[in-house]
Amino acid sequence: MRKIIVSPSLLSADFTNIQKELNIIEKSGAEWLHFDVMDGHFVPNISFGVPVLKSIANKHHMLNDVHIMISNPMFYAPKFIEAGADLVTFHYEAVKKADVTHVIDLIKSKNCKVGISIKPSTDVKKIYPFLDKLDVVLIMSVEPGFGGQKFLDSALDKIAKLRKTIDKMHLSTLIEVDGGINSDTGRKCVNAGADVLVAGSYLFGQKDLKKRINNLKRI
Fold this sequence. Notes:
Elements: E1 5-8, H1 18-27, E2 32-38, H2 50-56, E3 63-69, H3 73-82, E4 87-91, H4 100-109, E5 113-118, E6 136-140, H5 154-168, E7 174-178, H6 183-192, E8 196-199, H7 209-217
Parallel strand pairs: 1-8, 2-3, 3-4, 4-5, 5-6, 6-7, 7-8
């Protein structure tokens, strides 16, 4: 049986009480903390950048799971690693195919875990050639750029295909899913083969946060 990891998305946190928020989610059983980095170019929204990560990275004991939805990962990835990222996941669509391996190798050279994310419209088979170099594959189950969107069932087929391929290759690459995750969609993702569930509004600000995290981990 696979261990399920929950990575609460900081995008839904109350930044006026950020330390309190971090303490609550960590004590509630979260092992990863998801940073959605948006540049207003690769995706039509702007969130937070290097200074926010740097100010928070050492304020907890969770893995800093940094998802960079930006147009120039080769330039920015090292900056986020210096700021405290433990895992940097960049988008396959943000670079030329010939440069994907270069970005992976750059991140790994900084002693940081590396992941690739794909948008809902991208065929999961496009990242198969890189699987043996990756720690994580992040399947977007909504269009990247905004929180609170409805889960796209098309992600389940991608997860299942990816699970089958990873197992066939005997790899330890984790499958992470981000977008519209709750108890129902989380169960569907885990049944399809997911290892890591990213959730924002479903977790932050909820009175039964610990119960919700535990439910996701035990699905």
